[in-house]
Amino acid sequence: MIKTLGYAAYKAKEALAPFTFERRDPRDHDVVIDIQYCGICHSDVHQARDEWGGSLFPMVPGHEIAGIVARVGPAVTKYKVGDRVGVGCFVDSCRECDYCKQGLEQFCTQGMTATYNAMERDGRTLSQGGYSTTIVVDENYVLRIPDTLPLDAAAPLLCAGITLYSPLAHWKAGPGKKVAIIGLGGLGHMGVKLAHAMGADVTVLSQSLRKEADGRRLGADHFYATSDEATFTKLAGTFDLIINTVSAPIDWNAYLGLLKVDGALVVVGVPEEQVPVGAFSLIMGRRSLAGSLIGGIQETQEMLNFCAEHNITSDIETIAINQVNEAYDRVVASDVRYRFVIDMASLKTADASF
Ligand code: NAP
Ligand code: ZN
Ligand code: ZN
Predict the structure, then answer these.
(1) Rounded to two decimals, what is the model's pTM?
(2) Which whole-number Å values give the CA distances from 216 to 210, 226, 331, in the listed order?
(3) Is 154 in the pocket of ligand 1 (CB under 6 A)?
(4) What are the residues whose beta carbons fall under 8 Å from the beta carbon of 347, sequence distance 6 or more?
């Protein structure tokens, strides 16, 4: 077994603390990865604090993993020692259902194996995520990080990047399309960069105008405050596609009113509350309310290659592991520009308190 250091939530709503555990020795098709960086997704906070229910503890969060291959199992063909690789939100799936075969592993009918807060397919090992020194993953669930992308700023692409890339690609963001992103956080800022690179006309819908200069620098053509009611009259019937990254309740009917005929409002943020929608908000304009969940392995690789081609990474604030609890509070307060990334070298220093 491989001794691994990490930070874990031992219980819901408790601060994360040092945790030592073991990873399996590599099986035939496994890749052992030395984790260099891991992004902090708002989903980490939701799960570590058990805001979605059913969290499994102790939990080492983290599914925006970037590192270097340290060892490979005897049958591995895709990666070799020294390769720059990433791991996203899942580490396995059934590999046999129609969705797995189509590269939509995130919708596996037997359920994908989440990178953490899940049982592995042996039914007894708790999966543990990227706030740790090492991870062992089957080569088919590992991504290649292109050489031109720095590992720290590329880490958030593994969740925030693909979560926005997938719906933008599926709903065909591109030249002539008007796309709005609700919420300029970790996911939202990637959405702005990606939609801009795809050639769409991009609008940010933020709570205030505080982040306007950033939004425009990231690629937004327009920026509006949703706290200003005039925004909703001014922009009525404007967008082909709106992607909502916010995890707080919003006025869904008001946002549906911003869509053109046949426009789609896509949910990626996960509020705890149900989504109340009036039928008229949908039928007046044949509008769709849809959802999207990360992306499959093939599409995630396509996204990483697209980012290399367009020189896109995340805007990050790098922290040491012992700052993770403070970082969680700042994520909840929308006080991050625009993604925290943990430098895993900090796990091996005395400050990590092992
Ligand atoms: P984040 O960095 O906290 O960004 C969320 C943004 O929402 C904030 O920056 C803020 O933007 C806005 N916001 C915050 N509180 C708000 C409020 N009370 N009312 C209106 N807007 C508010 O979070 P994230 O990491 O991007 O994740 C966002 C959500 O997506 C989370 O629920 C996460 O679990 C979910 N998620 C889903 C998927 C998926 O596959 N569907 C994948 C990853 C994450 P402004 O300051 O600009 O208003
Ligand atoms: Zn995430
Ligand atoms: Zn499957």
Answers:
(1) 0.97
(2) 12, 17, 21
(3) no
(4) 5, 6, 7, 132, 133, 321, 354
Does the beta carbon of 187 lie inside 6 Å of ligand 1? yes
Q: Residue 3 and residue 19: Cα distance in Å, rounded?
A: 11
Pocket test for ligand 1, best of 41, 112, 202, 266 (most atoms within 8 A of CB): 41
Choose the residue to mutate in 245, 292, 294, 299 for probing ligand 1, maximizing ligand atoms within 8 Å of C-beta. Answer: 245
Taking the C-alpha atoms of residue 232 and residue 224, their distance in angstroms, rounded to an integer, is 10
Residue 259 CA to ligand 2 centre (angstroms): 27
Sketch out the chain's domains with CATH numbers.
2-159+315-353 (3.90.180.10), 161-291 (3.40.50.720)
* CB distance 183 to 245 below 8 Å: yes
DSSP three-state, residue 204: strand
10-residue block means of pLDDT along the chain (354 residues)?
97 95 98 98 97 96 98 98 98 98 98 98 97 98 98 98 98 98 98 98 98 98 98 98 96 98 97 91 97 98 98 98 98 95 94 86
Q: Whose CA is nearest to atom 29 of ligand 1?
A: 269
